[in-house]
Design goal:
By secondary structure, this protein is an alpha/beta fold. It has 15 helices and 12 strands. It is globular, with a radius of gyration of 19 Å. The two termini are 32 Å apart.
Length: 350
Amino acid sequence: MASSLDDYEQLASLLLPAGVRDFVAGGSGSETTLRRNRSALDAVTVTPRVLTGVSSPDPSTRLLGTPAAMPVAVAPMAYQQLVHPDGELALARAAAHAGIPYVISTLSSRPLEKIAAEATTWFQLYWLRDRSMVESLIDRAEQAGCAALMVTVDVPVMGRRLRDVRNSFQLPAEVVAANLVGARTEAHVGVAGASAVATHTASAFEPSLSWNDLEWIRRRCRLPLVVKGILDPRDARCAAEAGAEAVVVSNHGGRQLDGAPASIDALAAVVEVANCEVLLDSGVRSGTDVLRALALGASGVLIGRPLLWAMAVDAAAEALGLLTAELTQAMMLAGCATVADVAELTTGRA
């Protein structure tokens, strides 16, 4: 059994092919932002309160009106069958067991309807060149019972992920984008010195997504709207004005613009101006990180890579149980009985 979420990466690395391991672990460019996410979180200090009489902290909350056993949702991540034969179904079941929302990726390797049957889900939407397919995905998410629509706005093109380029990474034949028409794509065709996944993204995604398009989605979709990929407070304000109920402060796990700020460093300024719920994504690796995000004003976090590593060793439910235990203990040590209490803590920088 792992003693921390970081342990799962070491365990998974013994099992996964090198190309898959790099696809999961890697960031864009020189991976400056990937590293910065971790160092910036480590630099956040949280001053505990004492003599608060807390004996049994309650980490439960609501995210976008969805009940959650802790202020965490599983981040949208593509092609999860790369790390587990059941793909997204395995992680959705673990999320259901943990009592938290699971975010289905547009590029999931299992159909969104099958994933939605396993857990409380939100659907993550990439803006595709084929608008009719965008409409179809929104309709399917609504009909499948997804509780929110999360639009990712920081991928006009895929960041240059050098590990994938050097590995000439391509998807194996059995791993497909199950929600898209013509599941076998350029992502399965290897080209020396190129990422086949990036080639597919370039052909499928529409780079000119604008605020007008987001407003169209708001009119078109009945679900609560979440905008993921916000770092600038001005964009957070625009998202709320366009009708978003929440924004996700995220640099895509260091996989898009290398040199972008760490998400945790952008969080407070976004919270200050956003007239909506604010979640944090990128770099979360422990219950202490969740506490840090809450203390800085987030209502919850998304967690990604550690759960892929845990999936690879059939331990996704165990990993989420560990995260719950870590957060509960962190709340206890900080003198907080509830998630609302955490928001009152004082933070600083080491």
